[in-house]
Amino acid sequence: MSDPEMLKAAMLLAKMALGDNFVPKEFFRDDATSLLKESGCAEPQDPVQPLIDNGILKEKTALGFRLLRFTLDPLAESLAAAHYVRTCGGDAECLKKLKEDAAKSPGFLTAIELIEKGTH
User: What DSSP designation does 4 have?
Assistant: First the structure.
């Protein structure tokens, strides 16, 4: 997996990990694999394994389910923030709504603000 592919995969999975409330949590490996394959990341190889091998994600098994989690919550927040800020582009209204939605998640909000400052 190339570095740009890995970054794209990590940002997509970070968005998945944060969910609707923007708080990092565990997610199913099967869901992650499906999302990455649908997004065209590194097929036909397993697109999740390189992220585990490089220490970005960690995996555990519980009740027969393979679960993933980012090794560090700030990493997940930063990658998801980068994804959302890129999606907004330079749209000020989009960024304003994103910040309003993220207000209850201080780590994610801080990551958005840092990434936004870095793009100016």
Answer: H
> Residue 85 and residue 111: Cα distance in Å, rounded?
10
pTM, two decimals, is: 0.90
- Give the integer Cα–Cα distance in Å for 101 and 99: 5
Range among 1-5, 15-19, 61-65 with highest mean pLDDT value: 15-19
Contacts of 13 (CB under 8 A, 6+ apart): 27, 32, 35, 36, 48, 51, 57, 68, 70, 79
CATH class of 1-114: mainly alpha
DSSP assignment of 32-98: HHHHHHHTT-STTS-SSHHHHHTTSEEEEEETTEEEEEESSHHHHHHHHHHHHHHHHTT-HHHHHHH
Residue at 7: amino acid letter: L
